[in-house]
Amino acid sequence: MHILVSDPLGDSGIAILEQQDGITFDHPGTKMSRAEVMAVIGDADGLIIRSGTTADAELLAAATKLKAIARAGVGVDNVDLAAATERGIVVMNTPSGNTIATAEMTLGLMLALARHIPRAHQALVEGRWERKEWMGTELNGKTLGLVGFGRVGQAVGTRAAAFGMKVVAYDPYLESIPDGATIVDNLEELYAQADYLSLHAVVTDETRHMINADAIASMKAGVRIINAARGSLIDTFALADAIKAGKVAGAGLDVYETEPPDENNPLIGLDGVVHTPHLGASTLEAQDAVADEAVRLMIDALLNNSYVSVVNQEVLAQISN
Ligand code: MLT
User: Fold this and answer.
1) Tens of pLDDT along 39-62?
2) Residues 122 and 221 in one domain
3) Hey, how many other C-beta atoms are within 10 angstroms of the C-beta on 4?
């Protein structure tokens, strides 16, 4: 069985592939260009990717031997799931490896906003010793509203509680309520309470641009919004307007509607906005964890016909026939 690893992957995952009998693999070690992937995808039984490779319908049509895709990470927005299912290709992801990295990034953005760390840093390296300008606020005693209370949302909640925050969450898909969690019934209740609002949801037709002008209007004045999930949860222009109007006191953004952000994105460089370039999962620990998990999922799929963490579940009935 031959596996193509078309994006950079943690060393621990590559070490597993090197030691695995019955497997050959290609891994240039850097992100392969579209043309490079297209040139060799026809030989691959398995494809391991991060967010760099777009497995769209055209690529999948060229992948004539492909049986499985493993995404080292959570989001599968770079995979055309319907096209994969139609071709009997199983798509798997690694939902747990990034959890702590993303939760810690979220807290980092909150602290950066509360204490103006990036702007104070910038002033100092530019030779200004500014101590009055960057008066901060404390997380302690503030309310954190979590949109989505899955793995990352819960990990953020635990850490925020350790900072003395009151944590409130909204998640219509929650199967059971974790001990001690405060869950509200609707977003309006969440927005009315949150001093910090952090997004931990996937993008669907229901959640795309959920943070829009109407939603922001029902939030507390001075709310700070954090997004380390997906950029399309926020209407970029509505958020920029609300920050300029002073309704929203700040935003900590790791993700954007288009990545890298368009040059006309009004949030970039706006006072009160802290940016990082989609680094939520970028820790050595998380990248090793998701690489390991993705490689093991792929080996099991190709050598044992055993499929775990399948995103397009409906394909399983199809390939068992
Ligand atoms: C994920 O979906 O796993 C994260 O956003 C990180 C990534 O895209 O690799």
Assistant:
1) 999 999 999 999 999 999 999 999
2) yes
3) 25
